Amino acid sequence: MWDRVFVVQNDLLPYVRKTLRDATGAVDLLTGVTGVTFSMREVNSATPKVTNQACTIIQSAPQVDRGVVEYRWTGTLPSDTPGIYVGEFTVTYTGGATATFPGPLQSSLIVLIRPQIA
To answer: From 3.20.20.140, 2.60.40.3350, 3.20.20.120, 2.60.40.10, which CATH number describes the 3-114 domain?
Structure first.
C-alpha cells in the first residue's frame, strides 16, 4: 500500500506529513537529528519539483507519537502543476550521516495533485 497525499492544484493544504519508519517498520525516534528535508518529482520525470525543502519535526522522542515530520508547501507554489509525484524525506543526523524515507523496502510516498475546477 502506498502512502498518499491528495492536494488540489494551487492549494497550500494539506501538508505532507509522515511517520518515518526504518526498514524493519520501527519508528525512527529522530534523536540526534540536525535537520529534515522534503523533495518530490513527477513520477515519469527526473527533474525535481521540490528540492531539499526544510521540514518540521512534529513529534520526537520521548513523546508517545514519535517520528512524525511535516513539509509545508512553500516557495513558488509547488502544487501549481497537476500530476502524480513521488516524494521523500531526507533526515540528517549529528555527524552528517543521512537516511532517506521511505526507504528502498518501504512503500512509496505518492503526492496526487488534481486540477483545480475554478
So the answer is: 2.60.40.3350
